[in-house]
Amino acid sequence: VKIQKDSYKFRKNLEKLGWFLGYEISKTLQYKPHVVQTPLGTSQTSIIKDDIVLATILRAGLPFYQGFVNIFEHAESAFIGAYRQENNKDLEINVNLEYLASPNLDGKVLILIDPMLATGKSLVLAIQNLLNSGKPKQIHVVAAIASEPGVKYLKENIDCELWVGAVDSILNAKSYIVPGLGDAGDLSFGEKL
Fold first, then answer.
1. What is each CA distance from 39 to 36, 42, 44, 113, in whole angstroms?
2. Among 128, 162, 173, 166, which Cα is nearest to 147's?
3. How far apart are the first and last CA of the chain?
4. Distances (CA, A) of 10 to 15, 102, 168
5. pTM for the model
6. Beta-carbon neighbour count of residue 47 at 10 Å?
7. Which pLDDT belongs to residue 110?
8. Distance, CA of 8 to chain centre
9. How far is Cα 133 from Cα 151, in angstroms, rounded to an integer?
10. How is the chain split into domains, by residue range?
11. How far apart are CA 125 and CA 129, in angstroms?
12. Of 57, 82, 92, 151, whose CB neighbour count within 10 A is largest?
């Protein structure tokens, strides 16, 4: 079995998936009329009415996030620094959130972008902390791969629309999605120490 280790290809594929899922989300948003002036005349079109905030968890989410930035080019951004800390004694996973930078979210559409929805704990913690920055009109959570237990945990704790590329049924003893894709941050940028 050949394991995918081409970080450039992995990043580009996450970015493409971000484009596709961003486009699908854009079809659910509200639009307003807009007039475009060209050198030869005017045209009536429509643009997104909602103010969008794209949020991602560093570093794994950056390539996936880029695909959304390509679709929602006028969106504001929020960034979250969070990581999983494993307790080897009882295989419990704790999530540490160390950094959060967000614009005001009041009345805006929040799109939280994270390639892997494993347990759902980091996403729930991220959203709960983001809500300190205001009450969004809508919350969309987007993952490339999700686990069934992670989807269940997220839906039990956060009122949101969930968009995923694929759902895998299994989390292993270390709470990794099986078969999943592996560690998205390491696959995108190299293994961390």
1. 10, 8, 15, 38
2. 166
3. 26
4. 9, 27, 19
5. 0.87
6. 10
7. 98
8. 19
9. 24
10. 7-189
11. 6
12. 57
The amino acid occupying position 192 is: K
CA distance 160 to 190: 32
Q: Using CA atoms, how far apart are residues 99 and 69, in angstroms rounded to an integer?
A: 21
- Specify the pLDDT at position 91: 53
Give the Cα separation of 191 and 57 in Å (integer). 17
Gap between the Cα atoms of 189 and 60, Å rounded: 8
Element (H, E) at 185: helix 184-189
- Size of the chain, expressed as the number of residues it contains: 193
Q: Which two tokens stand for residue 159?
A: 């009122």
Pairing of strands 52-58, 76-87: parallel
Judge contact between 185 and 192, C-beta under 8 A. yes
Question: Secondary structure of the chain: what % helix, strand, coil (to 5)?
Answer: 30, 40, 30
- Alpha carbons 44 and 108: distance in angstroms, whole number: 25
Angle between helices 7-26 and 62-71 (to 10 degrees): 40
Written out in words, the top-level CATH class of the domain with range 7-189 is: alpha beta
Q: Which two tokens stand for residue 93?
A: 């996973």
